[in-house]
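Friendly challenge for the regulars: who can give me the structure tokens for this chain first? No prize, just bragging rights.
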Amino acid sequence: MRIDEESWRLVLLAGYTSKDVARVAGVSQSTVSYVMSGKRPISERTRRRVLEAIETLTYQPNAGARALASQRTSVIGLVLPFGAVVDTAALVPFIETITSSARAREYDVLLVASDEGSAGLRRLAGRSLCDAILVMNVQSKDERVPVAASLPVPVVFIGVPDDPAGLHCVDLDFALAGRLAVGELAATGHERIVIVEHPAEMIERNLSFVDRFLDAARDEADGHALPYQVVVPAGRGRAAAAAVVEDVLRSRGHARTGLVVPNTQALQPIIQDLAARGAVPGRDISVIGICTDAEAAESEPQITNLSLEPRDLSSRAMRTLFALLDPTGVPAPPVIDLIPPRLTRRNTVMRSP
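First reply, four minutes later:
Bragging rights claimed.
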């Protein structure tokens, strides 16, 4: 019995020859030819060794061969923010989840710096480097939107620009988070709210999640007729957080004050500096953070938080991406998919008077 044509076609597509098969099987090249053609009787044991060699060689064919055979690269392009203003540690759970999700579907991930802008997207698609693209660091007015919408491969944004132009976008519902945070402080009798924003260098980048949270929080405060103040830290780290705390404590007077901290990096330094000044969160002042449940639960004191789970967000984005790559038998993903945050009451919000 000769080797079926499909098996041998895969060997050739993978860039191998009968010589490679013979080397792996430990037989002569002529023996491989006889097994292929069936022109001479070959023992079942030898034939099995040749077939196993073919299976070994085609199990992980090179990327070029796979692309030729399936017209796909089995690569996902991931456009990531890099640079001095980026919290690199915060990217780790995104990258880990995206890469593990890709490998589970036998895809690789190609990282591209978002600083390349639209040119980076064109390069990925124009050179057929990937089958789909995942974009992070989305701005409210993002120049990459029209280019992404015109590409021949699926593009998914982690973030929602003002005009998505029909692109699939997945993100935490930051607007809902802003409303929930302010609503919780209003419901517990607070008289003044301070929103501790991201550093100016981040705000200037017009990142969509920053704008959506702040706009919604302001609208909610206005709806409750609650005075509010937006504080922009002078930078990162403990010194910047300490300056924010000093300003808040000095200006609060006797007003029942609540801090809303969407700036995840500033959350722990603010909690620590408040405690160092004798202003106990949950007793003297309230704090609501936007952070993961694990970070909130492991803090001292435990922080009342709105859940921000980058692994859940990344998994949802990858499900959307693969549904676009292979829509057979799966429900069409929503174009705008917002994950509702979960408010968990812990120890840093004062109870109603």
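The chain has 15 helices and twelve strands. The longest helix spans residues 88-104. Your move, everyone else.
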